[in-house]
């Protein structure tokens, strides 16, 4: 009887050890987008209402993480703040980066090497920043 119990225990042990873990669940479309976005991006071009303003953002680099945070080297507030968190939301066929400071950035193109972002910014009345109001387009490449 003990041989049967030992044999049964060995059999169960072998069965349990041979069972692989569950296959990882596939990534959602949002998770894929965040994974592609999670890297350091170096500014290639910047424009506001079609006017080249890359000089305003000299040396700008933005790093996004899979934990939904970001940092900007050579930040230019209030357009690009130095750091924060974000959420990613689907808007039509595009995704929008909703920054923790309330600014929305629409991703129009995202690949392994390039990201294009559009944002509208309206400066508060009676501020010295009224000249920066407009529709901004930023094109970054992976660093």
List the helices and strands and how they pair.
Layout lengths: L1 H17 L10 H9 L2 E9 L2 E2 L8 E4 L4 E5 L9 E9 L2 E6 L4 E7 L3 E8 L12 E9 L1
Antiparallel strand pairs: 1-2, 1-3, 1-9, 3-4, 4-5, 5-6, 6-7, 7-8, 8-9
Notable characteristics:
143 residues; alpha+beta; Lipocalin; eight-stranded antiparallel beta barrel; 9 strands
Explained architecture:
There is one protein chain. This protein has 143 residues and is α+β, with helices and mostly antiparallel strands. The protein has a single domain (27-142), classed as Domain of unknown function DUF4822 (Lipocalin). Helix content is 18%, strand content 41%. The protein contains 2 helices and 9 strands, in the order ααβββββββββ. It has helices spanning 2-18, 29-37; strands spanning 40-48, 51-52, 61-64, 69-73, 83-91, 94-99, 104-110, 114-121, 134-142. An 8-stranded antiparallel beta barrel has the order 1-3-4-5-6-7-8-9. A hairpin with a 2-residue loop joins strand 5 and strand 6. The radius of gyration is 24 Å and the shape is elongated. The mean pLDDT is 87.
Brief overview:
Helices cover 18% and strands 41% of the residues.
Radius of gyration: 24 Å
Outline type: elongated
Strand order of the largest sheet: 1-3-4-5-6-7-8-9
If you consult CATH, what is the topology? Lipocalin
Q: What is the helix/strand order?
A: HHEEEEEEEEE
Q: What do we call the CATH homologous superfamily? A: Domain of unknown function DUF4822
Largest sheet: 8 strands, antiparallel, barrel
Uncertain ranges: none
Give the structural class.
alpha+beta
- The number of helical elements comes to 2
Helix content: 10-25%
Integer count of domains = 1
